[in-house]
Design brief:
Length: 156
Protein backbone atom coordinates (compact mmCIF):
# COMPACT_ATOMS: atom_id res chain seq x y z
CA UNK A 1 0.00 0.00 0.00
CA UNK A 2 1.37 3.32 -0.96
CA UNK A 3 0.64 6.80 0.39
CA UNK A 4 -2.03 7.53 -2.23
CA UNK A 5 -4.14 4.56 -1.12
CA UNK A 6 -3.82 5.59 2.52
CA UNK A 7 -5.10 9.08 1.70
CA UNK A 8 -7.74 7.92 -0.80
CA UNK A 9 -9.47 5.55 1.64
CA UNK A 10 -10.31 8.15 4.35
CA UNK A 11 -11.28 10.71 1.68
CA UNK A 12 -13.64 8.19 0.05
CA UNK A 13 -15.11 7.34 3.47
CA UNK A 14 -15.54 11.04 4.27
CA UNK A 15 -17.13 11.65 0.85
CA UNK A 16 -19.58 8.77 1.35
CA UNK A 17 -20.47 10.09 4.82
CA UNK A 18 -21.08 13.61 3.49
CA UNK A 19 -23.18 12.24 0.60
CA UNK A 20 -25.25 10.11 3.00
CA UNK A 21 -25.74 13.11 5.30
CA UNK A 22 -26.75 15.30 2.35
CA UNK A 23 -29.20 12.68 1.06
CA UNK A 24 -30.70 12.18 4.53
CA UNK A 25 -31.24 15.96 4.87
CA UNK A 26 -33.00 16.07 1.51
CA UNK A 27 -35.23 13.09 2.39
CA UNK A 28 -36.01 14.49 5.86
CA UNK A 29 -36.91 17.87 4.35
CA UNK A 30 -39.20 16.25 1.80
CA UNK A 31 -40.99 14.19 4.45
CA UNK A 32 -41.26 17.15 6.80
CA UNK A 33 -42.67 19.56 4.22
CA UNK A 34 -45.13 16.89 3.03
CA UNK A 35 -46.49 16.65 6.56
CA UNK A 36 -46.89 20.44 6.73
CA UNK A 37 -48.45 21.39 3.38
CA UNK A 38 -50.30 19.88 0.44
CA UNK A 39 -48.95 22.49 -1.97
CA UNK A 40 -46.74 20.60 -4.46
CA UNK A 41 -44.68 23.60 -5.65
CA UNK A 42 -43.84 24.44 -2.03
CA UNK A 43 -42.81 20.84 -1.38
CA UNK A 44 -40.60 20.87 -4.48
CA UNK A 45 -38.98 24.23 -3.68
CA UNK A 46 -38.25 23.33 -0.06
CA UNK A 47 -36.63 20.05 -1.09
CA UNK A 48 -34.68 21.78 -3.86
CA UNK A 49 -33.51 24.47 -1.42
CA UNK A 50 -31.95 21.87 0.86
CA UNK A 51 -30.60 19.80 -2.06
CA UNK A 52 -28.79 22.79 -3.60
CA UNK A 53 -27.70 24.80 -0.56
CA UNK A 54 -27.13 21.89 1.83
CA UNK A 55 -26.82 23.01 5.51
CA UNK A 56 -27.58 26.72 4.84
CA UNK A 57 -30.61 25.58 2.83
CA UNK A 58 -31.76 23.45 5.75
CA UNK A 59 -31.42 26.41 8.11
CA UNK A 60 -33.42 28.60 5.73
CA UNK A 61 -36.06 25.87 5.46
CA UNK A 62 -36.30 25.54 9.24
CA UNK A 63 -36.89 29.29 9.52
CA UNK A 64 -39.50 29.47 6.73
CA UNK A 65 -41.38 26.18 7.14
CA UNK A 66 -45.01 26.17 8.34
CA UNK A 67 -45.22 26.16 12.12
CA UNK A 68 -47.57 23.20 12.48
CA UNK A 69 -48.13 19.96 10.63
CA UNK A 70 -51.37 19.19 8.85
CA UNK A 71 -52.26 16.69 11.59
CA UNK A 72 -51.67 19.31 14.29
CA UNK A 73 -53.79 21.85 12.39
CA UNK A 74 -56.57 19.27 12.04
CA UNK A 75 -56.45 18.45 15.76
CA UNK A 76 -56.52 22.14 16.64
CA UNK A 77 -59.53 22.68 14.37
CA UNK A 78 -61.31 19.76 16.04
CA UNK A 79 -60.56 21.17 19.48
CA UNK A 80 -61.86 24.60 18.46
CA UNK A 81 -65.01 23.03 17.03
CA UNK A 82 -65.54 21.08 20.25
CA UNK A 83 -65.13 24.24 22.34
CA UNK A 84 -67.59 26.15 20.14
CA UNK A 85 -70.05 23.28 20.29
CA UNK A 86 -69.86 23.08 24.07
CA UNK A 87 -70.39 26.85 24.31
CA UNK A 88 -73.49 26.58 22.15
CA UNK A 89 -74.89 23.84 24.39
CA UNK A 90 -74.82 26.07 27.49
CA UNK A 91 -78.29 27.53 27.77
CA UNK A 92 -79.00 30.96 29.16
CA UNK A 93 -82.22 32.58 30.20
CA UNK A 94 -83.27 35.21 27.64
CA UNK A 95 -84.75 37.31 30.46
CA UNK A 96 -81.90 37.56 32.96
CA UNK A 97 -78.96 35.97 31.10
CA UNK A 98 -78.17 33.45 33.83
CA UNK A 99 -77.29 29.85 33.07
CA UNK A 100 -80.16 27.41 33.14
CA UNK A 101 -80.25 23.66 32.68
CA UNK A 102 -81.52 22.21 29.43
CA UNK A 103 -84.55 20.60 31.05
CA UNK A 104 -85.79 23.72 32.90
CA UNK A 105 -89.29 24.82 31.88
CA UNK A 106 -89.09 28.15 33.76
CA UNK A 107 -86.08 30.23 34.82
CA UNK A 108 -85.75 29.86 38.61
CA UNK A 109 -84.33 33.40 38.90
CA UNK A 110 -86.66 35.62 36.90
CA UNK A 111 -89.54 33.20 36.19
CA UNK A 112 -89.30 33.59 32.41
CA UNK A 113 -90.91 30.72 30.54
CA UNK A 114 -88.14 28.86 28.74
CA UNK A 115 -89.85 25.76 27.39
CA UNK A 116 -93.16 23.99 27.38
CA UNK A 117 -93.82 20.40 28.45
CA UNK A 118 -94.99 17.95 25.82
CA UNK A 119 -98.64 17.07 26.45
CA UNK A 120 -97.96 13.37 25.86
CA UNK A 121 -94.43 12.54 27.12
CA UNK A 122 -93.89 15.61 29.36
CA UNK A 123 -90.38 16.26 28.03
CA UNK A 124 -89.32 19.92 27.76
CA UNK A 125 -89.81 21.41 24.29
CA UNK A 126 -88.69 24.72 22.90
CA UNK A 127 -91.44 27.28 22.58
CA UNK A 128 -91.01 27.63 18.81
CA UNK A 129 -91.42 23.89 18.11
CA UNK A 130 -94.71 22.71 16.67
CA UNK A 131 -93.93 18.99 17.00
CA UNK A 132 -92.43 16.91 19.81
CA UNK A 133 -89.24 15.26 18.50
CA UNK A 134 -89.45 12.60 21.23
CA UNK A 135 -92.95 11.18 20.77
CA UNK A 136 -93.99 12.78 17.46
CA UNK A 137 -97.18 14.47 18.60
CA UNK A 138 -98.12 17.71 16.88
CA UNK A 139 -98.40 20.44 19.47
CA UNK A 140 -101.73 22.20 19.70
CA UNK A 141 -103.67 19.01 18.97
CA UNK A 142 -105.64 17.40 21.79
CA UNK A 143 -104.00 14.37 23.37
CA UNK A 144 -106.34 11.41 23.80
CA UNK A 145 -106.46 10.19 27.36
CA UNK A 146 -105.64 6.51 27.94
CA UNK A 147 -109.27 5.77 28.97
CA UNK A 148 -110.67 7.32 25.76
CA UNK A 149 -108.24 5.51 23.50
CA UNK A 150 -108.94 2.17 25.25
CA UNK A 151 -112.71 2.58 24.83
CA UNK A 152 -112.23 3.61 21.19
CA UNK A 153 -110.30 0.38 20.56
CA UNK A 154 -113.01 -1.66 22.25
CA UNK A 155 -115.71 -0.36 19.85
CA UNK A 156 -113.80 -1.32 16.71
Amino acid sequence: MDLTDLILLPVAFLGATVAAFWLSMVIWTFRDIRSRTRDLPTQFLATLLVAVLNIPGLLIYLILRPRETLAEAYERALEEELILQSLEEIEQCPGCGRRVKADFIVCPYCHTRLKQPCPRCQRPLRLEWSLCPYCGIALGTPVPSPAVSASARGHQ
